[in-house]
Structures are given as C-alpha cells and as structure tokens.
UniProtKB/TrEMBL annotation:
InterPro entries: UPF0178. HAMAP family: UPF0178 (MF_00489). It comes from Pseudomaricurvus hydrocarbonicus. It comes from the Bacteria. CDD domains: PIN_YqxD-like. Belongs to the UPF0178 family. This is UPF0178 protein G8770_12090. It holds the Pfam family DUF188.
Amino acid sequence: MKIWVDADATPKPVKEILFRAAQRAGVTTTLVANQSLSVPNSPFLKTVQVPSGFDVADNYIVQQCESGDLVITADIPLAAEVVEKGALAINPRGEKYTPENIRQRLAMRDFMEEMRSSGQVTDGPKTYNQQDRQAFANTLDRLLAKR
C-alpha cells in the first residue's frame, strides 16, 4: 500500500498525522500539489509538484495509484476515479469513499454546487476541528492496521 495525498487543499493537521503515520508504519506517502511543499526528512515521505491547471494533481494521482493504495482527498470526483481503480479513499474528516456510497456523494456534490451557483446556498463546509482530526487519525490507523 502506498498513500497518495491530494495536498493542495489538505489541512495542515492531516498532513502532520500522515507524516507520523508514514514513519510509524513504514508506508510511502506522496503529497501531490501544484505548489512546492516541504515535508520532514524521511525515506517514506515524497512530494510531487505538478504544473498548475484544472485537475492536474488529480490526474497525476489517478494515473499513479494502484489497487490497494490509499488516497486522501476531499475531491469527490477524484475519489470516484480512484475507488473505481480499486484504491481506498478517505477525506480529511475520516469518511471513507466506497463503491457503495460514491455515486450518492457525487450526486450530492453536484446538487450543492447547483444550489450555490443559484445563490440558494451561500455557506461552505464547516470548520475543520479537533473531532475531524481524531476521526481522520482513527480511520487512517484502522486502514493501516489492515494492510
């Protein structure tokens, strides 16, 4: 198992959890972003800087990940693509994307996007908090223990 991180929008606490987990579990973790990233010096941590552009990081992750890998992303279309390839996917709040729930998540995402563009919904996602961090860490630990 390798871990792939859609790092442009991943909260800093999630990255810190991933850095510790990669070291502890000895699993290669690659952060993909369209900007330069710094990570602690570790043989298990890598960064890939892709060119700027729509879905460039997402496309890179889809091309590189394999069945059984783990992808960390809040991007539901990216999650759908990697789940289709047989990879595992979780968001920074620790919620797993599965073949059983991904279509519903895509439909809800599209619905909310339509509501926001029409002005009927103006708020975004709730603030990332300690409970979210704990849920992410717990889900990550469970997935790493299964490998």
